[in-house]
Amino acid sequence: MNFIKASILRYQLGSLLLLVLLLAVVLPLSLDIFRLNLVGKYLSYAFVAVGLVMVWGYGGVLSLGQGVFFGIGGYAMAMFLKLEASDPITTKIQSTPGIPDFMDWNQITELPALWLPFKSLPLSLALVVLAPMALAWLVSFAMFKRRVGGVYFAIITQAVALICTVLIIGQQGYTGGVNGMTDLKTMLGWDTRTDGAKYVLYYVCVGLLIASIVLCRWIQTSKLGTLLLAMRDKEDRVRFSGYDVSNFKVFIFCLAAGLSGIGGAMFALQVGFMSPSFVGIVPSIEMVIFCAVGGRMSLVGAVYGALLVNAGKTLFSESFPDLWLFLMAGLFIGVTMAFPMGLAGLWDEKIRPWWKERRKALREAAVKPLASTATPPPAPASPSASPSPEPQLPEGVGSQRA
């Protein structure tokens, strides 16, 4: 029992169990399938927010280009689904059957070599994680080995996001251009548009997200997590202690990129399309907002931040279609100014101390009446002397004897 309590306290499993209860039981029982599918879409963004907690909150490296890795993972999954939807029978009306429709529109007569690995599902799933990590390694190795960091690294990641967006839109014959990849309906013959499939994909997304949080929490509580915090606060001291700081930064940046790629793949599966609008600078900054609102030091808080911001976006855009952008900006500015550490900071700095003080006050209030009503123990009887009358105690010391 003590081991279980110690593990819950060390890995902060209490908040994680509450999150599992909310995602796996409460939301599926209280929402219809349309809204639940929306929540699944929001949770795919939560992968990026969890990765940002590691790279920004613990590593001290602010990345404004996480949408690139989200998009690469999403496109890797979408390319497999698009090839399956472009079989020769379905595309027999095209001039070149067997290739995606946007390739046929752009006069491409043969499947490009870039697309060939995505005919295999296992290879596509591997590329969902490995392709974003490879690009992340290339960018971070080139930057961190030269000690480029801070605001310069943030600007470079924005430049990478812009370059990738322009590249995807410009190569319309290979990527679908600005329209992206649509009509993604089946995976190995399994129709992902049915209600049953949406439930399955939602629970797969929840399971992968919880596993990602457990992995990141394990890293945080290990020696590597301690080194990341030390590197964030006093990078020079860690370097002078003999550690290669750049390797830690490269690792944590690649980890965040891999998590973002998983989120992108789950997005493509649940929503059924992928476009460059999820790759650029604006979605990348939105993903940082998810993390900032939830709390950049809390893995579970980042998930709540992604849910809250996206639910607010849906609510405001449905109720106030002309004002929803201003309302979202007000939500972000208000939360970050009132709670610099996000909603998780509100819990740690305000609610938890208030609850401890309240419990302490309740315990003290329960002890006082017992002390005032306690009667003094009887005096031992003396065989030689007659019992003397009890001395009168001063008022207010009734629990003591003279």
Average pLDDT level? 85
Spans where pLDDT lies below 50 across 5 or more residues? 398-402
Biggest sheet overview? 2 strands, antiparallel
Beta-strand proportion: under 5%
Beta strand count:
2
What's the helix-strand series? Answer: HHHHHHHHEEHHHHHHHH
Gyration radius, in Å: 29 Å
Structural class: mainly alpha
Overall helicity: 55-70%
Strand and helix layout:
Elements: H1 2-11, H2 13-30, H3 33-58, H4 66-85, H5 101-105, H6 121-144, H7 150-170, H8 172-175, E1 186-187, E2 190-191, H9 195-221, H10 223-233, H11 235-240, H12 245-271, H13 281-294, H14 299-319, H15 324-338, H16 342-373
Antiparallel strand pairs: 1-2
Walk me through what this model shows:
This protein is mainly α. It contains 16 helices and 2 strands. A two-stranded antiparallel sheet has the order 1-2. β1 (186-187) and β2 (190-191) form a beta hairpin. α2 runs antiparallel to α9 (195-221), α3 packs antiparallel against α12 and α4 runs parallel beside α12. It starts with a helix and ends in a 29-residue tail after the last helix. The model is unreliable at 398-402 (pLDDT under 50).
Short account of what is shown:
This protein is mostly helical and 402 residues long.
Key structural traits:
402 residues, mainly alpha, two-stranded antiparallel ribbon, globular
